[in-house]
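Hi, here's the filled form for the chain we discussed.

Project: internal
Contact: R.S.
Residues: 456
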Amino acid sequence: MYKTTFKELIKVAYPLMLTSSTFIIMSFIDRLFLSWHSQEEIAACTTAGLVSFTIVAFFVGVATYVETFVAQYYGAKRYNEIGKILWQGFYFAIVAGVLSVLLIPLTREIFTLSDHSALIQIHEKNYFTILQLGLLVSIVGDVAMGFFAGRGKSKIIFYVIGSSVILNGILDYLLIFGKFGFPELGIVGAGIATVMAISFRTIVFIIMLLRKKYREKYAILKDKSFDLTLFKRLIKFGAPFGLQFFLDHVAFTIFFLLIGRIGDVELAVSNIAITINMVAYIPIGGLHWAVVILVGQYVGKSDFDTASRITKSAFILTFIYIGLVSLSFVAIPDIYLNLFEYQSNQDFSVVLLLGRKILILLAIYSIVDAAFIIFIGALKGAGDTKFTMYVSVLCSWILFIPLVYISVEMLHLDVIWCWIIASIWVIVMGIIVTLRYLSGKWKEFDVIGRNEGMVA
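And the returned structure, exactly as it came back:
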């Protein structure tokens, strides 16, 4: 029985091991190239990227929750309702995209308040503005991708996202370094490359979504009207997830802003370490996404036993993988860190010294973090989103950020203490979410109205 479950999980997950991490891969390419171009740019790009994504994280969380609706409708074989939920997602995405652009003048001032060096602030503001201008297209693309993700069509997503990642890498090379007649734009070029690649992805998904076989089977164009009842249902389940997504990103953004107040080198090293960690987590991201999809489909069928087996199988695979990754962080950290050696006369030994210590801390918390990622995927797929929002509020804003602020602004501790606090934060959240999943309360939620009398 578990052999069949593993096969189904892997079939959906392995293409998503790339596609679930588009932002991670593009960010890695941006940061790798920028680390060769300028230390100030690598210090600026992660903070600016975090702020940009944080500003719209709530909207992205709600828009991407469309895939859970699609998964449950698909599992319940209520195909003619899929088109309508997609349109509610598109309407939400348009509003979110417009708001993200309108917030640019206000949110740019965050970097002024950060007290980073003047040059880094200039790079941060330029990169941030470009990313914000592309977010409308990005969120619309997330909704369109949810149609394919919710039905478990991960190979289609793999090819589209894979093509956009390749395009991003090519454009990065041309625009950051000014190759083959293109201007040398540095961090501005990285931002333009990312927006162009995301736009390509969105256009392709929309074209595919409008194919005749999808239009007819899933009623894609049959009813494009705004449905207040369905829209409210999307908000009811998507908003808590979106808020949790937003609060986590706000916390991490503040974390990096505070590290930047310690020093430019500490900020650059922290950016490098978290970038390494993000890339290492790509397979786990794919498993997380597969769990959301498959749990959603089986919950739609009211088959909770299979949903549980899917989650357990994903956890086993994740535990084995992250154990090996954590071991490599401790045993061979320099192999990772040396990828980011600057092409300048600056002393890279400081980066190595701090980077090794941070990677050890990442290795310590990664096991619990992996469990958190898988189990929160199961909770999301089932509709248990309010609980994760409460966990995020309590852990991020009572434990994590206050302790980091005290460490930096009052006790003037070094960057390693900040990462120790981050490790404690991740471990506490991981334990709480794991216990919530094991309680079985996620089986009581009703996203698509299977049991209208049930209180969700």
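Let me know if anything looks off before we file it.
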